[in-house]
Amino acid sequence: MEGGPWGHLPDTFDCFLALCSRVDQNRLIPVPYEVAVMMWDFAFGGIYDDAFSASLLTHFWVSIQRVYGGFLLAVITAVPLGLMIGRFALLRVMLDPTLSLLRPVPVTAWLPLSMIFFGLGPKSAIFLVFLGAFYPILLNTVFGVRSVDNKLFEAAAMLGCKGSQLFRSVVIPAATPQIFNGLRLGLGFAWILIVVGEMTGVPEGLGAVIMDGRTLSRTDLVITGMIIIGITGFLSDRLIVLLNNRLLRWSPQHHA
Amino acid sequence: MPSTNTSAQAPSGLPILSIEGLEKVFPSADGDVHALENINLEVRKGEFVCLLGASGCGKSTLLRIVGGFENPSDGSAKIYGTPIESPGPDRGVVFQDYALFPWLTVAENISFGPKHRGLAKSEIKETSQKYMQMVGLTQFAGKYPNTLSGGMKQRVAIARVLANDAEILLMDEPFAALDALTRAKLQEELLEIWERTNLTVIFVTHSVEEAVILSDRIVVMGAGPGHIESDISLNLPRPRDPSSIEFNDLRRDVSNQLRRHIAAAPKVRDAIDA
User: Fold this and answer.
1) Which residues are paired to B25 by β-bridges?
2) CA–CA min distance B205, chain A (Å)
């Protein structure tokens, strides 16, 4: 982590943690060294040898599956729906009231219902992640389609491009910058919601580990979970940015 | 389909474009806007016609109707006798702000039309290379529009419609956003292309000098509502020298006509008197 805009982030976090542990008289906040030991044990085991030793990969893998499962579900529904809503006024009029009314409802409020619908388990978590990622992707796609310069449609029409060809040749490429905005926001929300989703009583996952840490008053475990989610969320965002910059070679202003 | 190429079968006597009694009214909440009134115009194949007039005289609206982007409220606009209903590849439009597809390279922009007409890959490549060469952009084939200058973008826009076998070039103040030197260069290139290809060009401009440099015919338009004031034939040989006496006489003549029409519009006269 030398140089670059994020070079000092871990230092800052360390300082914050060190400060907190000094302020906290009851030693509920661990010092950075204790967190480091916990992380090592969580990843490789051999120190505490308890239920959490060397279990990082298991938790990490189920959380990744849920985050990307919910996220991809949101992508394959929200992007096509957004393209249609953006393009067809009739569909917009029909769907807008429902979508606008559901949008302000916090995803966490869906928790009880989703547990009834999908039971206590991974399906519920995936559903919450899906809900959280859906709206940013949908709204940005609609916005992207609606802000396509009308001149481009006219140019395409006079060159002989008509009807459904317009989707592939004009609408989708022109809306790609906004769609990617939505994907980035959506994936960010997905990582936020995985913790909520895994509070629904699933035994495995990074969110579940944090909940367990809370119940057991093991803040070193909680902080370990937070750090891992932070890093993974950051890396998956970089992945989207990489794809974004590759697909938007034509527009350096949209590079992130 | 009115938009398909029918030139080969077209009877030689028929004008390529004929407009009769055309009216255009834009409905709006605070009263209809009468944009064009009783427009009658015939353009023959191979002519270079400039529509000249001040802002708001409806010259761009007229061009948009020929392009198929707007429908006439009354009267008709026909290509070889077939009413214009929608945009089509036979009428290539060159917009003032280029309207290139920013996500496509120069070569891909030029190939856009041929690709959508379903030509074979080798044919598409051949066509795009031919027209890239014609406008001198071969070395920029792989560049994206945002890396090009205004003049280069407009060259791509022209090549794009030529590659699509356009018969009429509809140009809406295409060089208005360019600097004087680039504009002069592009005017020269456009004339070269026009002479080489037997295109018909309808060119909208508000610059008298540009109209006199380029056209066979200047159609002077007036505002309130938009109408044709006069139709001037130019018999000046090409290439035209803007510093020659003949050129300046002609320019003064057209300028005076245009000024007379503007002065004749009551609202404008009142505004000047006040």
Assistant:
1) B34
2) 19
pTM value is: 0.85
**For chain A, which residues make up each domain, given as ranges?**
41-247
Structure tokens at B274: 């006040």
Which of B79, B100, B103 to mutate to test binding with chain A, by most A CBs within 10 Å of its CB? B103
In whole angstroms, how far apart are CA B202 and each of A115, A223, B43, B52, B195? Answer: 67, 71, 9, 11, 14
Per-residue pLDDT reduced to its tens digit, B121-173? 999 999 999 999 999 999 999 999 999 999 999 999 999 999 998 999 999 99
Could you give the ipTM of this predicted complex? Answer: 0.88
CB contact under 8 A, A169 and B87: no
Q: Which two tokens stand for residue B104?
A: 């496509």
The superfamily in CATH containing domain A41-247 is MetI-like (1.10.3720.10)
- β-bridge partners, B203: B50, B171
In chain B, residues 38-67 whose CB comes closer than 8 Å to chain A: 67
The reply to whether A252 touches chain B by the CB within 8 Å rule is yes
Determine contact, residues B77/B65, Cβ cutoff 8 Å.
yes
